[in-house]
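ingest -> validate -> predict -> emit
validate: passed (alphabet ok, no gaps, 188 aa)
predict: started
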Amino acid sequence: MNRLSFSVLTFVLALGVALAAGYADVVEDVAEPVACTLAFVDMEKLMREHPATKAKTEGFQIEFEARMDVLRNAISKQSTLGQPRAPHLAQLKRIKKLEATLDLERKIIRIEFQLKVVEALRDVYGRCKAVVKQVAEERGFGAVAIISDSEVQGRTKSELVGDILTRPFIYAHDSLDITDEVLAILVK
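emit:
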């Protein structure tokens, strides 16, 4: 065996021994796996049926409709002004500005409405999550996964596949579903 082959073989053996020794240290640091019972919760149902979701969404909807009525009235007043003639260029400019302002206001109202709904749902999700943890600990579940029984949505193939892929669990035995228990606590 020539010197180069011997050096390479020595290096490979030394590397193997070093890796094995390092791996042994890593293996010692890894905790033993623990048996885990998995529960499931239908978050869509919890979010949809939570009392705060309904109340807040309905309140936001009423506010949204009231603000939209104000805009509709302003638009209706604008349309009663009639079509301006050439000498009324100032009136035409005023109408165009009003149209742009009303369109912008409509967009702002919709965005504000969406932001309020998102914030309310974020709050409801936090409450649901806390109660899910409480029920899981009481029943001795080591983890809770989300499951959905709703119909798969999607107008295109990619939307449909995306909706399917966000549902990693297709089936769970009813005894593992804690949705109704969580909802009962949330409704109290």
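The longest strand covers residues 38-41.
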